[in-house]
Amino acid sequence: MNSKLLALIVVIIVGASALLVLLLNQPGKSSEVTVPTLNSEEESLQIISAGIWYNPFINSSYSAILLINEKNTTAQIQKITIKGLAVNWANVYYCKTEIGLVSKISPIANELTGTTSEISIDDVTLTLKQATGEILFEGFKALVVYVKNSISIDAQELPEGNATVVVFIQKNAYFKEVTMKPEYSSIDFMPTEELKITRMQFLQEGAGDRYIRIIANNTGTTPVTISAVYLNNKEVNSDDLDFKPVSGTAAANSGLTITITEEWVEGNNYQVKLISSKGNTFVYTAVGPE
After folding, report:
1. CA angle centred on 42, ends 38 and 48, rounded to 5°
2. Any idea which fold 195-287 has?
3. Separation CA 225–CA 48 (nearest Å)
4. How high is the pLDDT of residue 13?
5. Architecture in CATH of 45-182
6. From residue 210, how far is each of 98, 161, 234, 257, 284 by CA, in Å?
7. Over the Cα atoms of the chain, what is R_g?
8. Which in 46, 180, 188, 210 has the greatest CB count within 10 A?
9. Pairwise CA distance, residues 34 & 102, whole Å
10. How large a percentage of the chain has pLDDT more than 90?
11. How many CB atoms lie within 10 A of CB 146?
């Protein structure tokens, strides 16, 4: 081959290679392919309340679970087990709602039938939807789940018998142990303390400091003392808290107001979590007004 022609071919190849490298390294360009994933952020679920009820007269039982999704990521509930046995999705009824609207689950008077069923718990009326398979659970939401014909219970197990309720998602499993009781007695993990957060106010003094005010009511029969306050999963310093009453205790059938010094931002999600002296948790989420 002619030496001049060979030299020309080499120059063309080198030039093309340099041009390709230049194009791949332009600002704002990337040679990597990004594959989107469902749930890039680790989920954080919490079982707030759970129960199992048994009617010995008809030898039937049902279970209930109240969960909250504490992060802005969607979790996929793949399986629910009770006493180690997976429940049939056809027996599962659920409702997604705002965190704080329902503070605990309780026995229901009506039977779960059809594709939808209306129930009343915690002074709130909910429409449950019959599950057809895995349940998508969006972030900053609460999920109420009732399972009919959930387990076979031997009357001799009651009332001391225990059962473990487990909720499985993609990466984790969340579980609670409950005591099975007859005659639709109420079973949950906060049997005496009943504090309901009813409102979150976003306030500002003129052009000065901003505050978040939490208003809660003790709907139970025993006092509730708040020992810790969390805002967006970070504990609030006591210097930034103001309680009314100052003791931080809500007497039975009375109210409690908590003011947090916080430079809140319009349009942002804010989740408050109140921890009682007995270790019970009360959660509420709201968005800063624009």
Report:
1. 110
2. Immunoglobulin-like (2.60.40)
3. 18
4. 59
5. Sandwich (2.60)
6. 25, 51, 18, 16, 19
7. 27
8. 180
9. 40
10. 40
11. 23
